[in-house]
Amino acid sequence: MKLEYRNFKVTDIFIVETGANIPQNELKSGKTPRISVTNLNNGISGYYNDLSSNNYRVQENFISFSFLGTCFYHPYKASLDMKVHSLKPIGYMLNKYTALFLVNLFKKSFNGVYNDQISSTDLKKSYIRLPVTNDMIDFNFMENYIKSIEAKMQKLILYHNALALRERERERERERERERIIRLTAMFLLRIHIWQIISKRLLCE
After folding, report:
1. In angstroms, how far is CA 170 from the centroid of its own chain?
2. Calpha distance 53→60 (Å, rounded)
3. Given the DSSP bridges, would you call strands 71-80 and 3-9 parallel, antiparallel or unpaired?
4. Burial class (CB within 10 angstroms; exposed 0-12, middle 13-18, buried 19+) of 152
5. pLDDT (tens digit, 9 = 90+) per residue, 106-146?
6. What ranges in the chain are assigned the alpha helix state H?
């Protein structure tokens, strides 16, 4: 089983649908996130009530890709703003690992390719390079690859946390040592002061 990468047309692998414009005055505060072209907050521009409108388009467990190239994974139900596309693999249910692999792949594949904007036409006629094993797209490889990175990151975080804890303990020990030295110095100076007082009295006698 040899792993290789092949180019696939986006529409051969993904169901691509596009959001539509809803006038802001029709959107009322609610619970459903709305995905816009923003690069912040996972693309979420706000939370609104669902609408009964042909232009109100909702997806769940999908990758969003906007005409500006912003790309995120949404395991939850969300509505799509205009110029935001939803991508769902045909015949495969995304999980957070395969989705993260694909999100990064899309970002890398389209970075700087279409300058300022990526239209739905551009997206649908584009190709993306995917891992293949035995002539099948290898989603297991994608999942295991991200899991391995996640495991390495966890080890790295634990290592740095241990180092930080050790450094804090060393700093506490240094602080205790400074306090001990201050106490000893104070006691030494007090003894000198007392000895000076006794010496003066002895001289006076």
Report:
1. 32
2. 18
3. unpaired
4. exposed
5. 988 887 555 567 778 888 889 999 999 988 999 999 999 99
6. 10-13, 96-110, 120-125, 139-204
For the stretch 40-85, pLDDT in tens is 999 999 999 999 888 899 999 999 999 888 999 999 999 999 989 9
Q: Are 138 and 3 in contact (CB under 8 A)?
A: yes
Query: In the block, which residue shows the tokens 């000198």?
Result: 192
The helix or strand, by DSSP H or E, that contains position 130, with its residue range, turns out to be: strand 127-133
Token representation of residue 152:
């390495």
Q: Residue 64 corresponds to which tokens in the numbers above?
A: 């969003």
Residue 110 burial (10 A CB sphere; 0-12, 13-18, 19+): middle
Residue 92's contacts (CB-CB under 8 Å, 6 or more residues apart) are 98, 137, 139
Residue 57 C-alpha from the chain's centroid: 26
What is the identity of the amino acid at 196? Q
How far, in Å, CA of 77 to CA of 60, rounded? 4
- Taking CA atoms, 39 is separated from 13, 25, 105, 176, 197, in Å, by 25, 23, 17, 48, 75
Pick from 91, 86, 32: which is nearest to 62 by CA?
A: 86
- Cβ contacts of residue 86 below 8 Å, gap of 6+? 15, 16, 17, 18, 19, 59, 62, 63, 64, 65, 80
